[in-house]
Amino acid sequence: MSKPQTSVVILGGGPGGYEAALVAAQLGARVTVVDSDGLGGACVLTDCVPSKTLIATSETMVLLRGSASLGIEIPGADGAGNGGARADGGAGIWPGGPGERDWIDAPRLYRRVKDLAQAQSADVGARLAAEGVEVVMGRGRLTRRTRPARLAGAHAVVVGDREIVADVVLIATGGLPRIMASAKPDGKRILTWRQLYDLDELPAELIVVGSGVTGAEFASAYQALGSQVTLVSSRERVLPQEDADAAMVVEDVFKRRGMTVLSRSRAAAVRREGGGVLVTLTDGRAVRGTHCLLTVGVVPAVGGIGLARAGVTLNDRGFIEVDRVSRTSAPGVYAAGDCTGVQMLASVAAMQGRIAMWHALGEAVQPLRLDHVAATIFTEPEIATVGVDETMIESGQVKAEAVMLPLATNPRAKMQGFRDGFVKLFASPRSGRILGGVVVAPRASELILAVSIAVEQLLTVDQLAHTFSVYPSLSGSLTEAARRLMMPARPRAPFGEPAQ
Ligand SMILES: Cc1cc2nc3c(=O)[nH]c(=O)nc-3n(C[C@H](O)[C@H](O)[C@H](O)COP(=O)(O)OP(=O)(O)OC[C@H]3O[C@@H](n4cnc5c(N)ncnc54)[C@H](O)[C@@H]3O)c2cc1C
Questions:
Q1: Whose CA is closest to atom 43 on ligand 1?
Q2: Are 465 and 483 within 8 A, CB to CB?
Q3: Omega before 381 within 30 of 0, i.e. cis
Q4: Global model pTM greater than 0.85
Q5: Cis peptide bond upstream of 472, omega within 30
Q6: Best probe residue, ligand 1, of 9, 39, 46, 48 (max atoms within 8 Å of C-beta)
Q7: Which is more confidently placed, 87 or 242?
Q8: Reading across the β-sheet that carries 162-166, which strands appear in turn?
Q9: Least-confidence region, from 7-11, 76-80, 416-420
Q10: Per-residue confidence band for 101, with pLDDT thresholds at 50, 70 and 90
Q11: Between the chain's N and C termini, which has fewer beta carbons within 10 Å?
Q12: How do the residues of the chain divide into helix, strand and coil, expressed in percent and rounded to 5?
C-alpha cells in the first residue's frame, strides 16, 4: 500500500512561505498556500524588492555624481544649484542642491519600483503553479477542526468560508512596521517605508527616524537621489548593531555628503505642520522637514490568527517561539520568517521554511545555523558581513585574529574613483580557519560570497591566499588579507575542528 499523501497548509506567501511550499511539493506533499496581500509577501511587494529597486537608481546617481572626477562632464552638473561639481578624489557632486532632484522623474521611478515588484510576485505565482501548489487568496487563521475526525489532517485553517484541513501547518505571516502612538503615519508626509512608493515627488527634506538597517538604507538612497536628509539616531552612531568600523565609514560618508546625523537623539513625536512635518525630540529640540520616514522596527503579524487556541507560544517580544528546525510549541505547527523574529532576512525566512518542511516530511535536516548567514546593508558603500563578528572576539566568546585592509590602496578602487571601504577577515589563530569577514565597498554584497564560501566550507587563510584573484580587482584585497593572516610557523589543526 502506498504512503498516504501528507497535506500541508502554509499561512503567508512570502519567502518563508513560498520557499517552504516548493520544498513540500518537491517531496510529494499536497500543498496549499494562503496569502492575504500578494505572493512574494512583503519581501517582494513592499520591503526588500522595492527598496533594492529604488537603491538601483540611487546607485546610478552616486556614479553620476562621481563622474566629474573620472573626466565626464554632465551638462547641468556644473555647480549651479548642484553644490558644485568638483574633482575631489571621487567625492563628486556632494552635497546636493535643489536642482538635483530634477534629475529624477519620481513618478517614473516609483512606477518602475511597483511594476518590478508585481512582476516578481507574478513569477513566484507561476513557479508555485508549475509545482502544483494551490494558492488561496485571503486572510487565514488556525481553527478547531469541524470535519469528522476519521478524515485525515490534525489541523484546520479557515479562509473566508472555506476550511482547509492539513497534517502540517506552517505559519509565515511576516511582520508589520512598528508604529509609535505619537507618530501616526498619514501616507502623505509621515510615512512608513511601505508608503514611499505612492508619493508623486521626491521628498525635498526627508527626516528619517531610526538609524538601523532600514533607516540607513533609505537615508543613503534619498541623499543620493537629491533629498536633503536628516537622520535621527537614538544611539551614539548609526547602525549600532553592525561592525563598528563599517558603521563609522558609512556615517562618515553620510556626513561628508551633507547629511545631518543627529546621534543620541530620540524622536518623541511626529506631526504635520504647515506643508511639512515637525519632529520633536525627547530633549525638546525640534526638526522640520517636508517628509518624515519612520523606521523604528518591525512587529510580528500574529494577531487574530488563532495561535493561542492552537497552543502556539509567543516569546516576551511577541514573536512565535521556534526551535532550530522551526517547530513551535504546538505539535505539527511550524513557523518561519519575520513572525519568529529569529533574524529578519529573506534568506533566513526561506531557510527556516525549507527546514520546517524537510523536518515535517521526514527528511534528514540540519538545524538552522545563524553563524553562517551572509547579510548586506545596501547603503552606499554597502556593508556585507558573514560569520563571527568583532564583538564576539572582543568578549572572548571566539578566539580569532583579524586583519583589516582599507580599499583606498586597492588599484581597482582607485581606477573606479572611490576610497571609502575596507575588507576585514577573522581567522582562528590555531587552525587558520576563516571564521568571518566584513566588506565595505560598492557591491560588497557580491564580494562577500568568497568569504561566505570560506566560512561554510571550513577553508583556511592559506587556502584563500593561494586562490587566484583577478588583477586588478576588489576581491584581490580579500586574498591579500588572507596572505596577511598566514603564519607559516603556526601549528595546524586538522580541518573540521570546531570554531574557537
Ligand atoms: C525596507 C526593507 C528592506 C529589506 N531588505 C532586505 C534585503 O535586502 N535582504 C533581505 O534578506 N531581507 C530584507 N528585508 C527583510 C525581508 O523583507 C523579510 O525578512 C522577509 O520579507 C520575511 O519574509 P516572511 O516570509 O517572513 O514574511 P513576508 O515577506 O512579510 O510575507 C508574509 C506574507 O504573509 C501574508 N499574511 C500575513 N498574515 C496572513 C494571514 N493571516 N493569512 C494569510 N496571509 C497572511 C502577508 O500579507 C505577506 O504576504 C527587508 C525588510 C525591509 C523592511
A1: 35
A2: yes
A3: yes
A4: yes
A5: yes
A6: 48
A7: 242
A8: 140-143, 155-159, 162-166
A9: 76-80
A10: confident
A11: N
A12: 35, 25, 45
